[in-house]
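We store amino acids, C-alpha cells; thus:
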Amino acid sequence: MVKILQRTIVDPFPDVKRESCKCTINFARAIPEDFHMQAESLVKPLMQTITHQHSRVRVAVIEATGAVIQYGTGKNVDDVLSHLAQRLFDDSPQVRKAVTLVVGDWLLNLRDRYSYFHKLIPLLLSSYHDEIPEIKQITADLWRQVGAQWEKENEDDLKDKMDFLLTTPQLYPSGVERPGLGCRELVVRNLSRLMPAVGRDVGDWLVATRVKTAQLLVLLLLHAEDHCTQHLQPLLSTLYRACSDPEKEVVKHSLESARLMGTFVSPEVYLKLLLAHVEGASSTCPSAPWGPLMVLGATLRGSSGEALRPHLQRLADTLALPEVCQELHQAVYLEQVLDCVDALLGVCGEDCSSVGLQLLKVLISVESLATEEDIRERVEACLRRVCEVEGVSEACEVYRRHMPALLAWLSVTQHSWTGYSLQRTQLEVLALHSGPVIGEFLPLLLPLLQSCLQPSRDPEMRLHLFTMLAKMLLHAPLTLDSQGCFGEHVEVFVCECVLPNLVWHAGRTAAAIRTSALSCMLALLRGGAITSQQLLSFEDRLIPQLLSALEEDSKMSRLLACQSITTLLKLIGQELQPDSLNKIYPEVLKRVDDSSEEVRLASLKALGVWLSSLGRSYDPQSYQPHLEFLFQQLLLYLDDSDTKVQETTFEVLKAGSAVNPALLLKEVEAVRDKQRYPINCDRLLQHIQSGS
C-alpha cells in the first residue's frame, strides 16, 4: 500500500496527486499502530510534490505531511520543516492556512512535540502577521490553545510563578492583548534556541524572509518580556543588523522590538551594553555605524522617565562624546544622533534641564556637520525642546546660560584647529546662532579669535573666520556690539587680528586671506561698531594698509579697499590732518584707470568723498598744487568713453567746486575745447558759475 502511495503521490496527473494525499491521510488514521513503521518512506515523495504549480495540490500535500508526521515515528520533523517554512511565503492563502493548521495541530497533538517546540513555535507565530484576517485569527486561536494546554500540563511547575507572571508590566504597549501565561512561558523556555535562528534569518537574502523574521522578533519579545534580559547580547546584535536593512518594513519592526526591549529591560542593564556599542559603533557595526544609535533611540522611547533619570547624565555625556556626535558625516548617522536627543527630551522632559549643556553640544556638532536642510530643521526643533525643558522662551536664552562653558569647551582644542576642524565650524554655529548673546561674552570670545587669526595659523581657518566676522560685524548691534562694549576691544581686534592679515605675502591663498580681511574691515566700518574717535586712534596704522591693498591683483580686494577708504573718509575725513589726506588721493586716483569698471566707479566715489571731507584745517590756497593736479586728472575722466565714468566724475567735480571753485573754473576752461564731449564741461561751468 505504501509503495503504491509512493508512486501515485509523484504521479504527473494533479488529481492523482490529490487523491493519493487523501488516501495517505485516511490510511494513517485507519491503522496508526502499523502506519508509523512505514511513514518515513512517504516523506520524500511528499516533499518532491510540495512545490507543485497547482495550489490545491500543495494544500493536499501539506495536509498529508501533517498526517504522516503525526502518525509516524516523529523522526522526520526536521526533514519537512524547511519545506513548510517556504510555504508560509506562498501566494495562495489556502496554502498558508494549511501550513498554519498543520503546525498548530503538531504543537497540540504531536507525541514528541516538547522536543520540537523551538522549531514549531516560530512557524506558527509567523502567521500572526499574515495579510488574510482569517489566517491571523486561526493562528491566534491555535496559539492560545497551545499555551493553555501547556499550562495545564505543567500546572505544578507554574504554581510559584503564577502570581508574579499575571502582573502586567507597567509600560506594556497599549492596545496589545497580553499573551496567556502558558504562551509566555513556552517562548521564555525556548528563547535561547530561537534567538540564533532569528539572528541568522534577519540577514537572509530574501526580503520576505527578513520581514517575517523582524515581525517574529516583535512577537517573541512581547512574550518574553523581562526574560529577554538574559539574551541581550544576541538581541542587540540582531537589532543592529536589522536596523541597517534597506527594506523599510524590516527597520520598522526592528525599531518596534527595540522599543519593547526598553519597556521590559531595566536601563541599568541595557545601557551597559548599548552605550559601549554606541561609543565604538565604527568597530561594532562598520557597515552601518548608525545601528546602535538607532536602537538606542527606540529603546529610550520604550523606557520611562523615572527609570532613566539616574542614567541621564551618563546618556547625555555619551551622546556628547566627539567619537559619537562628531566622528561621522553621513546624513543617516546624524539623524539617529538627533533621534536619541529627541527621545531623551521626550521621555525625560524637565529632567533634561540638568544635561542641557551636553545636549546643546550635540546639537551644535550636528549642525556643524549637516549639509541637508531637513537635518538643520530637526536641530532647530530639538533646540526648541531644550528651551522648553530649561524653562526659557528663546534659543538665545539657552545659549546665554551655557555660553561660558561652550566657549571653554572650544578653547581647549583651538591650538590645533585647521580649516577642516569641526571645532572651527562649531564656533561659527555658536557665534552666528546665539544672536545678541555673543556680545555679552566678548572677553571670552576675542582671545580665542585673536589666537586663531594670527598669520602663523592655518590659512583656510583664518579665511572662514574672517567670513564669519564680516557677517557679524555688518549687523554689529545685533551681534558682537549688542551690549555696546565692542568698542572697548576694537583697537586690539583691528591691530592684532585684521591688520596683520593685510600684510602682503606671495601666493593665491595669502591673497584670498587679504580679501577676506578687507571684507571684515569694511563690515566693521559700515556696521556701526566703531566710533570716529576710536578710528582716529589707529588711522596711522590702518590707512597705509588700505592704500597698499589698492594695488592687489584681486579685483575684489581692490574694490573692497576703495569701499573701505570711502567709508573711513565719511567717518573721520573731517578730522584727518591735511598731510594724511594728501597721501590718500594719489593712490585712489590710480584706480580710476583700473581694468574693472566697478573698481573705477568705486575709486571715483572715494575721491568725491575725499573732496567732501576737506575740513577747516585744509587750506585750499596752501594745498592748491594738490587740488590742481587732482582736477586736471579728473577732467580727463570727464571725457571718458564710458558714460558711467563721465557721470560719476561729473558728480565728483561738483564736490570739488565747493572746495576751490576759481581753480576748477580755470582748469575747466583750459580743457573745454580739447575734449570730445565738451557738453560735460559746459554743464560743470554752468554749475560753478551758478554757485550752487
Observations:
- The two ends are 129 Å apart (CA to CA).
- The first helix runs from residue 2 to 9.
- The mean pLDDT is 89.
- Residues 349 and 389 are 6 Å apart (CA to CA).
